[in-house]
């Protein structure tokens, strides 16, 4: 097959899971000699403007991530395209009849549809019964790159910058290695529900001042982000930090924290869960379909439904080193067996071959 020019269209918020996924796919396609460019779906206002961009830049095909955010610009796309389900497109946006109408047209016109899990593929089949021949199930692969220069001291300094005066003083006086940090990695928007555990964590912090919930991620919904940061100030032991670079975040997960937390009400396949497992760190995640397809409870991670259930599990993780070790071993084995870079590479090269045939 001749080398082609491919556009990869997605919402490319800095330090987001979407950006990580898009960059990894771009790398797979570039390996084969294709020219692959990333473009933020928020760059466009209309499908006409997108069509002009495709023609002007002589793209041969398009791969879009998210049926609504990227797909709405592809209805008049002049070149073949395939779509990758995002998660909220299948779980949230389908409930809006106008969005569903647009996404249905996108599904009909797409050459292939990639789902990160069988759960997502089954959901798509429920909504669009004729879609099965186009479906490809390809779990996200994992690539982690922890910085050698980001240490526990750096993590504490970042926390102090965002903490209240009392918390900063406490962090200054605490011994290295004594903190019990649960890290919630999320772009701040309602679907991530970052405030779900604020109260239960603050109550625990009052009992054990070493315990902190640290929320880290970009401000995607600005009004919501403002509310999250203001609310956190009312709960001692809860700190909201700006996004870290990926190498710093990965180093923080591997060396500085006790566990990664996911509180989302909807997920496709959370990159931070996969990365935490790969980095030998325990994951506690809300029991929703997108997380259940990754985590087998008490084997490679933990699932919870209520703050009280979370607290019971989190205390076992915090205070029982052997329990943590067993869960991290389970997570690492799961990643090795199910989230191969090689298979992901082959899948997306195949997607491009289909687009150009």
TrEMBL record:
Residue stretches making up the Glycosyl transferase family domain: 180-328
MF GO annotations: glycosyltransferase activity
Keyword DNA damage: no
InterPro entries on file: Glyco_trans_1, Glycosyltransferase_G1
Keyword Glycosyltransferase in record: yes
Protein name, per record: Glycosyl transferase family 1 domain-containing protein
Organism: Paramuricea clavata (Red gorgonian)
Keywords associated with the record: Glycosyltransferase, Transferase
Family annotation (SUPFAM superfamilies): UDP-Glycosyltransferase/glycogen phosphorylase
Cited Gene3D superfamilies: Glycogen Phosphorylase B (3.40.50.2000)
Taxonomic lineage of the native organism: Eukaryota, Metazoa, Cnidaria, Anthozoa, Octocorallia
């Amino acid at each position: 097959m001749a080398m082609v020019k491919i556009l990869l269209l997605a919402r490319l918020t800095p330090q987001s899971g979407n950006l990580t996924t898009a960059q990894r796919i771009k790398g797979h396609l570039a390996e084969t000699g294709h020219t692959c460019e990333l473009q933020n779906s928020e760059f466009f206002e209309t499908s006409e403007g997108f069509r002009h961009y495709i023609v002007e830049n002589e793209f041969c095909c398009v791969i879009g991530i998210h049926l609504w955010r990227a797909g709405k610009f592809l209805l008049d796309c002049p070149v073949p395209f395939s779509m990758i389900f995002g998660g909220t497109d299948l779980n949230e946006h389908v409930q809006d009849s106008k969005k569903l109408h647009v996404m249905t047209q996108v599904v009909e016109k797409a050459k292939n549809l990639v789902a990160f899990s069988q759960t997502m593929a089954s959901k798509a089949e429920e909504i669009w019964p004729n879609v099965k021949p186009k479906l490809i199930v390809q779990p996200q692969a994992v690539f982690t790159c922890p910085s050698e220069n980001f240490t526990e001291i750096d993590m504490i300094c970042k926390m102090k910058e965002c903490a209240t005066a009392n918390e900063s003083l406490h962090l200054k006086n605490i011994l290295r290695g004594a903190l019990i940090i649960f890290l919630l990695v999320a772009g701040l928007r309602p679907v991530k529900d970052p405030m779900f555990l604020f109260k239960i964590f603050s109550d625990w912090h009052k009992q054990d001042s070493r315990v902190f919930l640290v929320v880290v991620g970009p401000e995607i919904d600005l009004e919501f982000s403002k509310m999250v940061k203001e609310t956190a100030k009312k709960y001692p032991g809860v700190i909201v930090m700006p996004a870290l670079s990926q190498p710093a975040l990965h180093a923080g997960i591997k060396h500085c924290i006790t566990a990664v937390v996911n509180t989302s009400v909807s997920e496709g396949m959370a990159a931070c869960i996969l990365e935490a497992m790969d980095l030998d760190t325990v994951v506690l995640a809300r029991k929703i379909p997108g997380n259940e397809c990754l985590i087998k409870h008490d084997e490679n991670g933990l699932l919870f439904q209520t703050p009280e259930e979370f607290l019971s599990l989190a205390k076992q993780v915090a205070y029982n080193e052997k329990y943590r070790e067993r869960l991290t071993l389970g997570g690492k084995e799961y990643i090795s067996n199910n989230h191969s870079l090689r298979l992901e590479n082959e899948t997306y090269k195949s997607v491009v071959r289909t687009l150009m045939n």
